[in-house]
Amino acid sequence: MSEDILQKIVRMRREDIDRLGLNFNIDIPEARRVGHTEFLGNAGAILEVKRASPSKGDIAPDLNPVELATTYAEAHAQAVSVLTEMNFFKGSLRDLIAVADLMERRRQQGLHTCAVLRKDFLLFEDEIDIAYRCGADAVLLIARILDDAQLVKMAERAQQFGIQAFVEVREADDFRKLSVVTDALGVAAAKTIVAGVNSRDLATFHTDPLIPASVRSKLPAKAVFESGILSAADATYARNLGFTGILVGEAVAKNPPLAKDVVSAFESGCENARGQFWKKFAERKFANNETRAASSQDARRPLVKICGITREEDGLLAAELGADMLGFVFSTTKRLTTEEFVRSFKTRLLRSACNDVAPLLVGVITDPNSVEGKTAIKLAQEGVLDAVQFHGVDPHKSIDDASGNALPYYSAARVGAPEDFDYVAGIRKNGEPRILLDAKVEGIPGGTGKTIPESLLREKASGSPLWLAGGITPENVATICEKFNPELIDVSSGIEDAPGIKNHDKMKALFAAIAAK
């Protein structure tokens, strides 16, 4: 079996330690010479001194750590993360010492001071001693590379020095380890342990912003969203999920002026309905995958949204068959629904669901300023709908920031040509973790029965989780899933006798085809 990126980093680091020692042949202070700042004492941003990464190569190879950390402090970051791994990130303990000394000077001058995190792939207790002497206020402990006993020993060593252990988790076993170390430290854990969840898989270095959303409820109150924060909008998204910290690397190391915007966006945000929707969706996605894997079914089976519900019996059958989302159209088409119907249907659905997890309810709009669009937005703000789907219209140009950040929503983009993906890229920059792609047919907003050209999907839609709509039927769903492995499929006209009138046999055939794939 070939070595993944994380394994390679750890192997090379062990070899360097054998050759150079735990100090990597760098002169370090015999004793700590700086004061202490609590790591993430308040909610805020952790900004990183980062020259390079395994996935991006050089990011800011010529950065001056003191100048960059000064920019971060002036932006009022809560902490500065200093990478000290030398092979892939081009960091050094010298950077850690320099940044810690800077913060001590700022402390003595009465200026805003950031806590200092040593970020590395630490393996031994004595590395905690070295980090402390170099001036670190916290150390990163990656649960994935440490066994239970070693993780506990290293966290206890941090506690003895009065610094924080920033425990990074991502996989199921990591959470078990977090519980082990928390139990081992007892009452000291609340002060010593800060948990972080990495949206980046360190084995592949792929990122998914829904990973932190899926596990936020498993983490302690003080928790950090790590990686994948590239803009102020991404910072707001993380805050909406209820995280008390974000760790931002590449974006601010490459573009230091962005630091102020990222810090401000995170600190001015709050946990809200938008974050609740993404947590519900993410929890459903990963719970479904675990269930399917346990039952030997394909863990990649897509989630299913049945759209254009106009009859109660259609929606109830879809829920019974296992639909994850139901769509209600608030646009002047033949599938137009009403506020009264949606309210009544939700009441009936919740009664019939009993102990089962009810599907998420989504209002689909094409004009947020229309009567229908405003109705859907109101229902989402009231919690009757779980989210609004902005279909073919940019939500960021349609609603003001205050309501937009509180409103649970996602975008659907109509694509039929390569240039349409420029619009998709623009939406992604606005902090949206997922975008639904639908077939573009001029003059028809959705439910066209047409599929997106296969060549276009292969060229433009690979590399990120795919939400796919357009022309999906019981006959082609297995082939579509096999070819494109969508995370979610959105089906409407492919199971209808007429617009808004679902054919129950076709609906059953759709779910049977998905289950059999």
What is the fold named in CATH at topology level of the largest domain? Answer: TIM Barrel
The class by helix and strand makeup works out as alpha/beta
Shape: elongated
Q: What top-tier CATH class of the largest domain fits best?
A: Alpha Beta
Question: Count the strands?
Answer: 20
What percentage of residues falls in helices of 4 or more residues? Answer: 40-55%
Largest sheet composition: 8 strands, parallel, barrel
The number of helices is 20
Strand order of the largest sheet: 1-4-5-6-7-8-9-10
Percentage of β-strand residues: 15-25%
Q: Report mean pLDDT, rounded to a whole number.
A: 93
Description:
By secondary structure, the chain is an alpha/beta fold. The protein has two domains: 267 residues, Aldolase class I (TIM Barrel, Alpha-Beta Barrel); 242 residues, Alpha-Beta Barrel (TIM Barrel). 42% of the residues lie in helices and 17% in strands. The protein contains 20 helices and 20 strands. An eight-stranded parallel barrel has the order 1-4-5-6-7-8-9-10, surrounded by seven helices. An eight-stranded parallel beta barrel has the order 11-12-13-14-15-16-17-18, surrounded by four helices. Helix 5 crosses helix 6, helix 9 runs parallel beside helix 11 and helix 13 runs parallel beside helix 14. The chain is elongated. It starts with a helix and ends with a helix. 47% of the residues are buried. About 2% of the residues have low confidence.
